[in-house]
């Protein structure tokens, strides 16, 4: 077997690329038994070769894509650069030349995944991307293989570790958002520019990938409604606790009779739900299928070695397929075209916190507006009072979003309403 060597190239040597390199080096004596043949890193593409001379063998380093794409001995391209370009160009060229691709690039897969998978199919290539969602947690392969006998109706989860860390600190230590974000940045959980995390874009990209696979329909990032956590306050978290809930940034995808719902937003979820106990930077994905019922996948959602673990798992899978002449056996699973619903056509319960002028008839007027828009109130609590202004919390029953938002638009113009402080969806 050791005569049969599969050569690979790694594009990028950042956090994930470094993890992949270290894992492959550590595992190289075992890979021949795991794969059925040898595996060799032939090239590593970097911008600055001098920066990596002490960590990567100099003969492996290159700053020229042509050294890789024109080398017919390199059979697997491992893309861990991130971003849309030039990663997208490199992956397309690799697939067109019959090279297999492993990537961790959620941005690219969430927008162009369907087209790239079709390109891989037409060239009898593997394109695997387990690391694009939830880091080291196996979820792409289980959806495509282990749960293939199910009709999946719901996938939801905590798929961004930064926001989960922030919300955990706000929940357990009473921090406000700004302090929790500052701590996340200091500890390396948040980027210098945390926008993609805290505004829900990162989770939205991952949810698009999960929904596409689970529901067999192309779903892109642009189809996902996204709302971040920057408006969540310590007061909202205290009130959530009083209601027996935790607040989490959830990605929720549902396959309903009238179409697919894909949303990322802060959510009040019962403290008894398994996702409520997922803390700090951990991720978890909750899946409901008609045969398996409920299943949850939990673990580290990011980092050098968790994400590197998922990438190396894909590399091994591709190399095994090559050894046994079965490349491209599991490609694009999007054989349906289920419509994707606008967020205003989705149904949810809502938590609303507002400041009202404390005068006779205020609550009756509110109830009248909600009632005229078919919004039923489940709970109504008066929390605090300062002078002639009261803090009111309302929780609704399930309602069509456009009816709820029409109510809020009308209420916000009422003279006794001083402020609509917070609106958070509730998941039961």
Describe this structure in words.
The longest helix has 21 residues, at 15-35. The strands form 2 sheets. Strands 7, 8, 9, 10, 11, 12, 13, 14, 15, 16 and 17 form an 11-stranded mixed sheet that branches. This protein has a 6-stranded parallel sheet with strand order 3-2-1-4-5-6, sandwiched between helices. The protein folds into 3 domains: 5-135 and 304-323, Rossmann fold, CATH 3.40.50.720; 140-299, 2-Layer Sandwich (Dihydrodipicolinate Reductase, domain 2), CATH 3.30.360; 346-427, ACT domain (Alpha-Beta Plaits). Strand 5 (100-103), helix 4 (106-122) and strand 6 form a beta-alpha-beta unit. By secondary structure, it is of the alpha/beta class. 36% of the residues lie in helices and 28% in strands. It has helices at residues 15-35, 66-69, 87-96, 106-122, 140-146, 161-173, 177-186, 195-198, 201-215, 234-242, 304-323, 362-372, 401-411; strands at residues 5-11, 38-45, 61-62, 74-79, 100-103, 127-128, 152-158, 225-226, 245-256, 259-270, 282-289, 293-300, 347-357, 377-386, 389-396, 399-400, 417-427. The termini are far apart. It contains 13 helices and 17 strands.
């Amino acid at each position: 077997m050791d005569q049969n060597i599969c050569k690979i190239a790694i594009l990028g040597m950042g956090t994930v690329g470094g993890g992949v390199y270290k894992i492959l080096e550590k595992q190289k004596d075992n890979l021949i038994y795991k794969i059925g043949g040898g595996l060799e890193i032939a090239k590593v593409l970097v911008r600055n070769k001098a920066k990596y001379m002490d960590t990567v063998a100099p003969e492996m380093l290159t700053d020229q894509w042509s050294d890789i794409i024109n080398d017919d001995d390199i059979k697997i391209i491992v893309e861990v650069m991130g971003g849309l370009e030039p990663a997208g160009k490199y992956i397309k060229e690799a697939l067109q030349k019959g090279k297999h691709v492993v990537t961790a690039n959620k941005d690219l897969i969430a927008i162009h995944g369907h087209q790239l998978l079709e390109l891989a199919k037409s060239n009898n290539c593997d394109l695997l991307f387990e690391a694009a969602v939830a880091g080291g947690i196996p979820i792409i392969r289980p959806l495509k293989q282990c749960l293939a006998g199910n009709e999946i109706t719901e996938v939801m989860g905590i798929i961004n570790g930064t926001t989960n860390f922030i919300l955990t600190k706000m929940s357990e230590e009473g921090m406000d958002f700004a302090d929790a974000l500052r701590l996340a940045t200091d500890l390396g959980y948040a980027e210098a520019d945390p926008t993609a995390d805290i505004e829900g874009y990162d989770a939205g990209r991952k949810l698009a990938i999960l929904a596409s696979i689970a529901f067999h329909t192309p779903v892109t990032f642009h189809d996902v409604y996204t709302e971040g956590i920057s408006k969540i306050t310590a007061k909202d978290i205290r009130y959530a606790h009083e209601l027996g809930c935790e607040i989490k940034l959830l990605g929720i995808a549902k396959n309903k009779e009238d179409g697919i719902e894909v949303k990322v937003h802060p959510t009040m979820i019962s403290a008894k739900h398994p996702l409520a106990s997922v803390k700090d930077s951990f991720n978890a994905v909750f899946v409901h299928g008609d045969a398996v019922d409920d299943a949850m996948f939990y673990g580290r959602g990011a980092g050098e070695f968790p994400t590197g673990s998922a990438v190396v798992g894909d590399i091994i899978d591709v190399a095994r397929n090559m050894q046994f002449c079965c490349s491209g056996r599991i490609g694009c699973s999007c054989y349906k075209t289920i419509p994707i619903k606008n967020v205003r056509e989705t149904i949810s319960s809502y938590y609303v916190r507002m400041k009202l002028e404390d005068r006779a008839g205020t609550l009756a007027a509110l109830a009248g507006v909600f009632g005229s828009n078919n919004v039923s109130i489940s709970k109504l609590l008066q929390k605090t009072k300062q002078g002639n202004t009261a803090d009111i919390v309302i929780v609704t029953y399930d309602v069509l979003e456009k009816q709820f938002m029409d109510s809020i638009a009308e209420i916000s113009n009422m003279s006794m309403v001083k402020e609509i402080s917070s609106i958070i969806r509730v998941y039961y």
